[in-house]
What we know:
There is one protein chain. The chain is built from six helices and 14 strands. It is of the alpha/beta class. The chain has two domains: 1-131, Rossmann fold, CATH 3.40.50.1580; 138-289, Rossmann fold, CATH 3.40.50.1580. The strands form four sheets. A five-stranded mixed beta barrel has the order 8-13-12-9-14. The chain has a two-stranded antiparallel sheet with strand order 1-2. A two-stranded antiparallel sheet has the order 3-4. Helix 5 links the parallel strand 12 (199-206) and strand 13 (233-237). Helix 4 (181-194) packs across helix 6 (263-284). It is globular, with a radius of gyration of 19 Å. Residues 53-246 form the Nucleoside phosphorylase domain.
Amino acid sequence: MAPILLNCTGNEHNQLVQVRNPYLDTMEEDILYHLSLCTKTHNLPEMFGDIEFVCVGGSSNRMKAFAQFIHQELKLPENPEEVKDICEGTDRYCMYKVGPVLSISHGMGVPSISIMLHELIKLLHQAQCHNVVLFRLGTSGGVLAPGTVVITDKAVDYCFRPQFEQVVLGKIITRSTQLDEGVSNELLQRSSELKKFPSIIGNTMQGRLDGAICSFSHEEKLEYLRKAYDAGVRNIEMESTVFAVIGVALLNRYEGDQITSPHDVLVEYQQRPQIRVAHFIKKRLAHII
Length: 289
């Protein structure tokens, strides 16, 4: 994960999730309103202290499906169809705990995922979690063949800069979007073991090229895509500069901006990042050699 909100303390093998906000220590309680949790009413270390992996994605249905999928992959007891939504007290997000894995939805767009991430990181801190690896699973446009899984090296903005700009108290704050290179490389290595579908490492760009208003020509769009490709961009999606994605390309933007693949093909595409991450998690947990 990019070091936007997250910091870790401890030695290399025992890193405790920390937050960069000294004012939290002065609060009697921390209400994680949009997750329907609170430090005073919930024992967060008992509920979440064993979390090692967090997987987030935009769609509530997709993250429930992933929770059920990882439940089966880890061969956990009980019925995977009965996974419980911890956030059922709110209609903003869904959250499922499956052994050491947390599966959470984040909605659509930068504001929605930002709100979720603030509360998620505080949750991991309050729960005293260690050595947590965070993933975002998603779909995207691409500048490559549809169905390719892109493991983000770094997220770039519309000018191909690896940074996220935010206005805080009237001042522009710029933060790096560089991700954990070790995790990216390990994901690619694990992906090569499956050999089911193509996976690459590349940059992810935030933005859309089609919409209700268009101020550029088709030729200008293609020229921009060529520049993006030359800058290392391999896929395009909406929230990447806040939290980059392990995303599957649903279409090639060189060929158009509309998704035309059949529904069953798209469903299979959407499962590809989940399969990659599940394999990574099982390897880390030594479920498979």
